[in-house]
Each structure stands twice: as structure tokens, then as C-alpha cells.
Amino acid sequence: MSESKSVLLSDSATGKSVELPLIPGTVGPSCIDIAKLPAATGHFTYDQGFIATASCKSAITYIDGDAGVLMYRGYPIEQLAKQSSFLEVAYLLMHGELPNAAQFSAFEHEVTHHTMMHEAFRNFLFGFRHDAHPMAMLTGMVGSLAAFYHHGLDLEDPEKRRLAAIRLIAKVPTIAAACYRYSIGWALRYPRNNLEFVDRFLHMMFEVPSEPLQLNPVVAKALDLLFILHADHEQNASTSTVRLVGSTGANPYACVAAGVAALWGPAHGGANEAVLSMLAQIGRPEDVGKAVERAKDKHSGFRLMGFGHRVYKNFDPRATIIREMTHKVLAELGVNDPMLEIALKLEEVALKDEYFIARKLYPNVDFYSGIIYKALGIPTEMFTVMFAIARTAGWVAHWLEQSAEADSKIGRPRQVYIGQTRRDFVPMAQR
Ligand code: SDX
User: Fold this and answer.
1) Per-residue pLDDT at 187
2) Among 25, 338, 398, 414, which is least packed by CB within 10 angstroms?
């Protein structure tokens, strides 16, 4: 059957109709281009939470929520998880193609040589209370990069834009580790150029003066895989935030700081930390049934964190990979975490429950990741920071893609106004 090129919309009240063009994707649903709708009908469209609205055209990531498909630049996440590395995925997301050996070596060298921070950053960091949440510190510290890299930043220059992207991928792990060490009162650690991306991060996080850090290849491999799985995810809330801020021509460091802030919410990246708190609150596998019943009660205000997804109405493919990895990593590290038993029981009970089945609520990427982070020695408050380290690759890729568009427009949604109609001011004495 030939693809339709347009849809016809008619207003039953006025009889007016308008033919709207369809924008086809290379895969996935076509989109109705509604740009001429207001002029033709006087109406806007309304879509709370943008459930059915495409905000842009992008070639970076494709998700099929019903089929549980996730591809970065056309490569299935399952293949990248098995055969790639986070830094190679970061290159792929930014450039659109997998690097050859020379391209990867040059990219890795560039990232490695942009990991250092200006010494004045310590003043920002040391201004926080020790007990500040690491995501609060990360938001502020990434935003402060704009104060160091604003002058001479010509966003019209693709090379300057690419360097900003490299700097963010390279410096966010350094900042993240510094926030952690500051929060526990440890001296900061400089990045070591002789280490690879993940080992360098682990060294900055956990190395202590009193003894050399024993880097564990199982931990590094698990973390690299988690970074691959969290690197990008189409137009999620934080990536859309980066794009919206970027559409104003704002400094790229300010754009990514806005993305960090958006990611922090428990409905988004903050869910991994919330899952661990929820599992701890449930306490025992025997109490899982009560938690599931609470989650079904609209008035309880309680949701199963790590369950459900705006797009996936099937298993989140990342959750499937992380679930398998959880058992392997805990066994290899000899960790026996009771939280895993509670999580497995919760998944079993929820997936059999009509409420969750009817709403197609499945475990998402955050459901198991916290258990692995915990086994890797990452403190709970750092879980969303880990997510931000990985998602920086996706954020900068989307920022670069949008910045390169010749017809990029400032993002400026409209509204349905439900406030007062026009009325005259009443002086205080007459109120
Ligand atoms: C991420 O967008 C992305 O791609 C995000 C992400 C990425 O990589 O960037 O994948 C990362 O953010 C994953 C999601 C992490 N968040 C959580 O795990 C928090 C718990 N889940 C939810 O709050 C919720 O499922 C959302 C926010 C993830 C999705 O919400 P939607 O699509 O807006 O769905 P909804 O809130 O309209 O819920 C639909 C129904 C409702 O019931 P009814 O009104 O139809 O009766 O499902 C119910 C909800 O009450 N529901 C849940 C539930 N999630 C939805 N009920 C109990 N527990 C849950 N977790």
C-alpha cells in the first residue's frame, strides 16, 4: 500500500478543512506537520507531556516502544552492549558512524587531554555544604563551566562546537568524582592520562593516598556497559531540555547543566536512586505484595520506581540487559545483596498483576541499575550522577545535531489559556 503523503483535518463547527503534510521517518511513525494548522483553522494542538508530539527531526536514536527496540545510529543496543565501549558509542552518537582505529585513537586522545579542570573550580566546589546532594553540586559545577569557556566561544564555528562537546564528555566524570570526594571529605584526585575512560573515573572516585587502588576489570566492564546503556534515549525529558535551551543559542555548558537538572527528577534519571530507597522501604520479599497494592492505589501517592515508561510498553531492552548483568556482576564480585531478592520478587508479582499488565508497565532501565551500582561500591546518592556521566554523550550529540541545522528555530510552545478574561485594575482601597 502506498504511503499517504498528507492527512485531511476538518473542523465540524466551521466546516473549514485543511490538508496537512505527513513527514515520513526512515523507520517508525510518520508525523503530521501542523505548522499551517492555526492559520487554516484558528486552532493550536494540545498534547500534555508531548505524548504524541515530535519536537524535532533526529538521526541519532530510534526507539520502538511496542517492540522494545533501541538503536543508536541504527545499531541495536544489544550489539553495542556486547561489542562496543562507552567512548566508542560516544563517538558514534556524535559523528553518526563507528570510528576506525585511527579515528577512535584520536578521539580518545582528545577526550583524555580535556579531563582536567581549571583550579578555580575548587572554589565553586568548596562553597557547597559537604552534605549537598551530588546532583545539586553537579548541576552547579557543569553550569559554571560556562563561566570558564564562554569567551571566544563562537557557536557558528563547528570546530568550536565539537570542542565544547569533547570538553563536556571529558570533564563531567572529573567533576562527578570531585563532587563525591568533597561530600566524603577526601582530597580531590586529578585525572590520570594513562588510564582508560572508566578506570580513570574509578581512580578519581576511589583512590586513597594510603594505598594503591586495585582496579577491578569486572567493575570497569560493568560500568562501561552501564554507561553504554544510559548514553542516549531519543527525546527524553533531559535531552529535550538540552535542545530547548540550545534553541535559544545559549552556551552549551549551560544547556547540559539544564539537562543535568532535568535528569535529577525521580520520574526520570532520579528513579535509580529512588528504586534503592523503595526496595529498602519494602524491606523483605514477603512485603512486596503490600507495596504492589499501594502502587495500584491512586491515593497512596506511591509508585513502583523503576517501573513504567512513557515510550516502552514492552520490556525496556536496557532493563533486560542490566537484569542479566546484575546476576553475573554480583556473582563475579561475590556480592549477595538482599535488595536483589526483593527486586526479583517485586518484578515477579507486578508482571503478573492485571493493573500493571493492563497499563503495560514493565521494569525500565532504572529498576536494576541501582543494584549494580551498589555492588560496584557507588553510593546511592551518586546513582543519578552516574546516569548524567553517560547521558552527557547523548546530550552533546543532540546539541550538535540541532546546532548544525540551518533552519533551527527557538523552541516556544503555546498553551490553552484557562485564566481570567480581561478585567480592570481595582485600587487597593476598593478591594
Ligand atoms: C527514565 O523518556 C525516557 O526515555 C526516560 C529514560 C531515559 O533513558 O532517558 O528512559 C529514563 O526516566 C526511565 C523512567 C524512570 N522513572 C521511573 O521509574 C518512575 C516510575 N515511573 C513513572 O512515574 C512513570 O511510569 C513514567 C514517568 C516513567 C511514565 O509515565 P507516563 O508515561 O506519563 O505514564 P502515566 O504517568 O500517565 O501512567 C500511566 C498509568 C497511570 O495509571 P492510570 O491513570 O492510567 O490509572 O500507569 C500508572 C499511572 O498511575 N503508572 C504507574 C507507574 N507508572 C505509571 N503505577 C504504578 N507504578 C508506576 N511506576
Assistant:
1) 94
2) 414
